[in-house]
Sequence to fold (300 residues):
Amino acid sequence: MSGRGPDAFGAEPQVRERLFAEVAAPGEGRRSLVAVLLALAAFGMVLSVSAWQVTGEATALPMLRSAIASLTEVDRFLAEEGPELREAAARQEGVLELPGYPLPIALEAREVRGASDAGLRTMLLDRSAALVYAEGLRAFDLTGAQSIDRLSIDGLLELMAGQLSAPTHERAGAAAAVLAAATAVLAALLAALSTGWSRLRAPAAAAALGGVGAAALSLAAWAIAGQFGGSDPFMSDLRAIVQAGVSAGTRNGAIVAGAGLALVAAAWGLELMERRVAGLPADAADEPAYAPAGDEREAG
Fold:
């Protein structure tokens, strides 16, 4: 028999020493650090992938069209300048100037002559969106009659119209690639530092935590954006663009979190099944990769 009896909490020395060894083992500190880094990498990966998706040409151009339509007041521009523009197209050939329009858009006289009002509006917005997407805010002609200051209301211009561009898309793609690689490496390292089914459970739980954080941040941004603008049509358009953009982060974060939690549940289920087949207690923990302290026993 052991010469040491139960402690004040009723735990046998062997159990107590094993618990202390597991909590105080150096490997636990490394596992915790890698798990935190993995959660942060997954968090950044979700946000950068979301930014890459939103700033892609197929998504960004329709959003820019909406913002530019409000910024340039294209309908009023066509109502005021459209007749003179058509008269100029009837008198001459070649490229027509667009006085009062804040973007250096080129229209051919033959295009104007053959276009309806709706067609002319579509041409202006399509080419304006393509120009802003390629060059960013530098594309705006600050000497035009339309003031660029309108896009600076509450910083929403810089936030959205200025970021929906090809350069931002490239930067977001590079960041997403780096963070995806970091996430994979950290997940593999955390699995190597774990034992048993924790090799699957620990990386999945850390990645799920990062996904939850990204989804929560994006959802908060969506809610905050909804508080600005009121009934002003211009601000309403910008608010819709902001909310459409950040919703990608909410969606992607929820996907990562759901996938991670599903893997955690699968690992628990498989571990329980394995222990039942082996006839082990259902609540037995994974054996640590290190030897517990206090293996020597005193003779009775």
Observations:
- The chain has ten helices and two strands.
